[in-house]
């Protein structure tokens, strides 16, 4: 009897010991993640200023932190994210401290107000891109008059692909663009880069990200400068123009105006739904297996007679739209993830 009680006592003691160790490890994991993230965000921002601190934390943190975080514990990921978020904020405040005169303080003026006041000094430098409604009117006129027109959109995948040998090293592109293989681009791929650059030069409208995160607008401008292009000479609009064209009714008006060809992995499903709504669908070209599959896709596209095309093909949408516009003399729209929303029922036409 005594031995049984003693055994139960030892088991209970061991369980308590294990629980205590797990609690300590959990706490250490969170603290390590928080401290590491905080220091990384703070030091980077302090040395390079607000922009670099923001870009490092969100650009590198998204690519590097996301992949590494998948291998870590949940508490480590939470700690790292919290540390980086606070590090970014502290980096901005540290930059303000460096600019204040000696022996002074700026009380009751939050960092957001300082940024707002600073932006006010640059109103004359603001550059307006074409509103989606104006793009919609141009597309309608092009379909009705059978005039060539190409709308492309640039996201981080396209920009990272174009950054090869200019704005970034291949290793850095692979790190930030860890998703590129799934988008159909294996770095290095200079041919893909050149096709995207050619698409920019031929497009009638170019959707660009207005986000100032590292892999978006800053990288877009860096790529343009590297290839001798000026953003002010390009027909720019917002990269989310595809959603706005739907929301403002232009997709429906285009469908009423002409015959549509649907291109992309979801082309069959989109085409079936369009037909069920009474729209004139010329055909569906699918699948699109990345940039290497573009020649086959274009050969299939050329078999169809249509007035405009909705292309949802990721990075490959740019050369497909460019070919339909410049070689076939048709209207083509980079439709993007609107195809996903339509087939899943999130957006109805």
UniProtKB/TrEMBL annotation:
Residues 132-341 form the GT-D fold-like domain. InterPro entries: GT-D-like, GT-D-like_firm. This is GT-D fold-like domain-containing protein.
